[in-house]
Amino acid sequence: MSERLIIIGSGPAGWAASIYAARANLEPLCIEGAQTQENYVQGTLPLGQLALTTEVENYPGFPAGDLKGFLKTALDENDLAMIPSVEGMHTVTGPQLMHLMRRQATNFGTRVITDDVVSIDLSQRPFKMKTLGGTSHEAECVIVATGARANYLGIDSEHAYKNKGVSACAVCDGALPRFRNKPVVVIGGGDSAMEESLYLTKFASKVYIIHRRDAFRASKIMAERALANSKIEVKWNTTIDEVLGADDEGVKGVRLRSTVDHDKTEELEASGYFAAIGHTPNTDFLNGQVELTDKHYIRWVKPFRTNTSVEGVFAAGDVADDYYRQAITAAGSGCMAALDAERWLGMQGVH
Ligand code: NAP
């Protein structure tokens, strides 16, 4: 049986689209992603990138405050058990916010499958897709809300120590015992690098920011905060030559190479290596069937609409947005995509 609407992805865009579509009686099916080791390593687990963060201070409607009572009334025990304990937090956390959104979507009848879409055929309607778990699904209309994932430099030694000290998410991994009271390095010069470095100062003895230029790309306020922190030292004009380590112990250090004098190298002791060098949209599974931008994000083909180049396929959130990349903008575009999908289905006589 063909679904009317399948929503692929489960960040703020996916759940906002699900909430609006469910309340429009479209009985949406949300394919939220799979809980696989590969998704853990890539940072593409269900509930999106917000599931990998701590406090969310800028999502409207969640001012600082203790949400414990509200969470207990809004979520069931299973949901609560899934949310990592974050003692000392004074506002909503990313995982809490995402579980609240998911619950809001299921409260209105969204059905959820915990699996990855690995292939899709958009050549004719109903669209057909297959999941990692081996199930097949068909839909008259699709909203792609698969978000984006963190980038790595791509050097062999970096790959070799993933989950053994190499990470792209300080907030997910920073509190691990291996990083406590030891030096760590953060690669990048944008806001993410500043944010991750500041976060890591809570645990590490020292945080080196490794940046390839002599000036940060980060916003002034974030850069100033990082530079003012006595635990942070910046290694300007350097890049990572190799991550040093051992199979059993993981990361033990890095060898830096100057980007100015290419013969100049330096070794630093470090128990952790955190990549903070931007993101890549999760569009591979579309296999070229939807028009992308030069940075591989989905292109919205109509101004102020979420239409893609394929009739009946809409896109929402970071998978189509390399500019704003905020939870609130992702949720806003998820709402837009559901309204666009509902109107489009109506025009096809399906809804
Ligand atoms: P970004 O702004 O694109 O910065 C990426 C950084 O990584 C740049 O400094 C870049 O160096 C460096 N880089 C990229 N590829 C590299 C490579 N191959 N080798 C070495 N260095 C490399 O990405 P972002 O920091 O993730 O931020 C993305 C967006 O999210 C921005 O708009 C940012 O403002 C926003 N954001 C906001 C907050 C906040 O407000 N709290 C927090 C995080 C992110 P170059 O500078 O030399 O290009």
SS field, number of helical segments: 10
In the predicted model, the low-confidence regions spanning at least 5 consecutive residues are none
Under CATH at level 1, the class of the largest domain stands as: Alpha Beta
Assign the CATH architecture of the largest domain: 3-Layer(bba) Sandwich
Cα separation of the termini: 16 Å
What characteristic shape results from the CA principal axes?
Answer: globular
Helix content: 25-40%
Task: Please describe the topology of this protein.
Blueprint: E1 3-8, H1 12-23, E2 29-31, H2 37-42, H3 68-74, H4 77-82, H5 94-107, E3 111-113, E4 117-121, E5 127-131, E6 136-144, E7 148-150, H6 156-160, E8 166-167, H7 170-173, E9 183-187, H8 191-200, E10 206-210, H9 220-228, E11 232-235, E12 238-246, E13 250-258, E14 265-269, E15 272-275, E16 279-281, E17 313-315, H10 327-347
Parallel strand pairs: 1-2, 1-6, 2-3, 6-17, 8-15, 9-10, 9-15, 10-11
Antiparallel strand pairs: 4-5, 5-6, 7-16, 12-13, 13-14
The chain binds NADP nicotinamide-adenine-dinucleotide phosphate.
Residues 153, 187-193, 195, 212-213, 217, 219, 239, 276-278, 325 line the site of NADP nicotinamide-adenine-dinucleotide phosphate.
